[in-house]
Amino acid sequence: MKTKIQFQKKTITLSIILGLHVMSHRINAQLIADFESFNTNPPGYFAPGTTTVFTAPGMVFPYQWNTAFGGYWAGGWAYTNVYDSTTAGFTNLYGVKAYKGYNQSAVYAVGQDQAHMILSLPGSTLSGFYVTNTTYAYKAIKFGDAFCRKFGDTTGTFSGGMYPQGGYPDYFKLRIKAFRNGILQPDSIQFYLADYRTAGTSNDFVLNQWAWCSTSALGRADSLEMRLFSSDIGSFGINTPLFFAIDQVTLIAPQTALYTNASNVNMHRYDSQLHCFTRSVADDTIEYQLWSVQGNVLFQGTWSMLNTFVNSGLSNGYYILKIKALNYTTQIRCIINQ
Questions:
Q1: Domains within the chain, CATH numbers bracketed
Q2: I need a surface site. Which of 4, 166, 231, 333 has the fewest CB within 10 A?
Q3: 49-53, 322-326, 331-335, range with the lowest pLDDT
């Protein structure tokens, strides 16, 4: 495979060769963010005290911090292993009614209204994720509180007698839209976290377990916008707590695979077997990083140091090579298959 990159009238031609007989092939790689690798000392949650991000394979989760009133989590995402399915109210921002993560996993993530999920690998599609209600939102919807009315309740809804008591068609839903090339796309996925639109029937529900939300219909995306909507609206906007939880976020990322049909590949010959590089810039001005698909930097340095990972015992699998020169960055996604 050859990638030709133009650098302000300077050209770099890069060819990476793994083995003697090399083929290039376009495949899709499935990457899953299950949050299990994040370190939370039970009970704990992501609270860095500053605006930042945390990452998973192919995904970036922004976190917003507001310094007012002593500081608080103002938006975005936080991962958590707080197991509290009973405590009502805003003191329990991180617990879920399902108690633990999907399939009883240890760690999951909580998002707020207008949270964005950035897809960091070009051409990616979010397949979907498991979603459920936080305990805070579930309790407010199911039973009401000082700020929210119980769903279905006509008291204070100004329904004018149109609906019997307990029959108001309430709902709480998550709407997902995709940004593509920086432009918000018109298509959306609507997922109901609570649905009383046929209020007073056996179809009424408030989600209390993990359920799959498919987003593949949105197609390729740079990022996804998550918005929450509720029928319980007061003079200051939505009364329902604008929080939800996700787990097992699944990404489909196109990969350019380099693999060999040679049964015995000598990876110890760096010059002849691994790379051929013609350039008009010096090796020490070209920077590289070799990433695992889990989002960890395995090796980094200047191009002249690239052979440091050749004899390092890398396992077969997917890797991402990021290259930067003259303020231009590109990345090559590959498979090492020895």
A1: 2-21+261-336 (2.60.40), 29-254 (2.60.120.1350)
A2: 4
A3: 331-335
